[in-house]
Amino acid sequence: MVNLERSVVHIVDDDEVIMEIFSEIIHDFGCRTLLFSSPTHYLGYMNEPDYSSPLAIISDVRMPEMNGYDFMHQVRQLNPFQKFVVVTGSPEIEHKYKNLACMYLCKPFNPDSLKHHICLFLQCDKNCGLDNAEGRIHDDRILFNLNKWSCPNNK
Known about the structure:
Elements (H helix, E strand, L loop, with lengths): L7 E5 L3 H13 L3 E5 L2 H8 L9 E5 L7 H11 L5 E5 L14 E4 L4 H17 L4 H6 L18
Parallel strand pairs: 1-2, 1-3, 3-4, 4-5
């Protein structure tokens, strides 16, 4: 059994209800969460002295200030090894940064899928990276027409 109690996951979504649902699911698995209502709030937080890189960032794609892919790119500019779960109900959206995400969840999703993704991130942290096939098999990347995946810790 994986111990998640010391892990922190950051959630970025403009929909408070969705953020709370994610937070409750993640808390049920023993992780702590920090919630951010916009990508710009999160990017501002990254410049704070108390900022600490999370186990993963869960981000929606469609947000008013900035889309999730551009947000992911900006975070990766500051922290190239940051892991992301991208959540969307529209996997057909094309974007040049689409392949930066480690994992994908397509709405509606099963809470156990989210737990599995978090466990994979813990394994990644423990082992300093995941086999590319391991990360690719266990998520919804196929729905997004993404076959190539590379763990950011393997770069």
